[in-house]
Design a protein that fits this description.
11 helices; 8 strands; alpha/beta; globular; 8-stranded mixed sheet; single chain; Rossmann fold
Length: 308
């Protein structure tokens, strides 16, 4: 792992695979660090010849934390958006996309295939639309939608994902267990988690990722700032209408965090794009599908190569 200056920030990144491989930038979702990408999935991409670069967003992990920005009032953000006003945000999703483009510049990478998941899927769309000169192909997995008319997650999902966690200093194991349980198909009390009903989450995989994230400076205030940026994101659909790179959208048919209508809407607003919906999959990375994900990304990248 290493760190570079990008867009005025110290950004922590990690690269996998041969230096001569085609670069592929992997953008994680809300509050997630580079550690949240399953290493087995990244290895599938490396096996197909890619040089995979993942990184910690601003306000996460070992990248700069913007503690002076304070904690946003989420209801104020929602209220401003509902009135058609500019929401009060510490930074925007466009800023997060500029970080990604600047990271490629800092690494001397002229163009890359871009992959994003969840909020990272929205950021990937913005890298492709705001910085098209940097993008060879776009893959967005369960991208967060900016279409306010689409259904969002049910309240119990929001409460589960953003609910309080045990204090990490005094109850590290409780913090880990609570975080892991959010992704499991069945909670200890018998209620649903956000995992894939068709691919029951592997507790071991989720725990390993959670423990890795704990070693990367957890920042709950940063999660709130990410969430505010997502809630206040400008509608990207008019930009997607003009997108001219090979694009695929991957979504789980059972996604409760970002409902499948989001991926479908992005697909319908992106000319020439492809939508792949996996039955039984929710908002996660089932190990059984890593190869299928990598094949789809590789096929999309091949379409980009064919254009050259």
């Amino acid at each position: 792992m290493a760190q570079v200056q990008a867009n005025g920030l110290n950004i922590e990144y990690e690269a996998y695979g041969p230096e001569g491989g085609e670069p592929l930038l992997a953008i994680m979702g809300l509050g997630g660090t580079l550690a949240f990408w399953p290493i087995g999935f990244l290895e599938e991409l490396v096996a197909r010849g890619y040089r995979v670069i993942s990184y910690d967003h601003r306000d996460t992990g070992l990248s700069d934390h913007l503690d002076d920005a304070g904690i946003p009032d989420l209801m104020e953000v929602v209220g401003a958006v509902a009135k058609g006003e500019k929401p009060p945000l510490p930074y925007t999703t466009d800023d997060l996309a500029a970080d990604a483009a600047a990271l490629l510049d800092a690494l001397g990478i002229e163009k890359a295939h871009v992959l994003g998941a969840s909020m990272g899927g929205l950021i990937a769309q913005l890298v492709a639309t705001n910085h098209p000169e940097k993008v060879l192909s776009l893959t967005a997995m369960y991208p967060v939608s900016t279409n306010r008319e689409l259904p969002g997650p049910e309240q119990w999902v929001v409460d589960l994902m953003l609910g309080p966690l045990p204090d990490i200093e005094t109850d590290r194991e409780g913090y880990i267990q609570t975080t892991v349980n959010r992704f499991l198909d069945i909670q200890p009390d018998g209620s649903r988690g956000t995992g894939s009903p068709g691919y029951p989450p592997h507790r071991g995989h989720v725990r390993v990722r959670t423990e890795k994230e704990l070693n990367r400076r957890p920042n709950n205030a940063g999660v709130q700032r990410h969430y505010a940026a997502t809630l206040g994101a400008a509608d990207v659909r008019s930009k997607l209408n003009k997108l001219d790179v090979p694009t695929i959208y991957i979504h789980g048919a059972e996604d409760m965090v970002v409902p499948p209508a989001s991926g479908r809407d992005s697909h319908e607003n992106t000319p020439g794009s492809e939508l792949i919906v996996f039955p039984g999959m929710s908002h996660d990375f089932p190990p059984e599908l890593w190869g299928a994900f990598a094949d789809a990304i590789d096929k999309n990248a091949a379409a980009a190569r064919a254009r050259r």
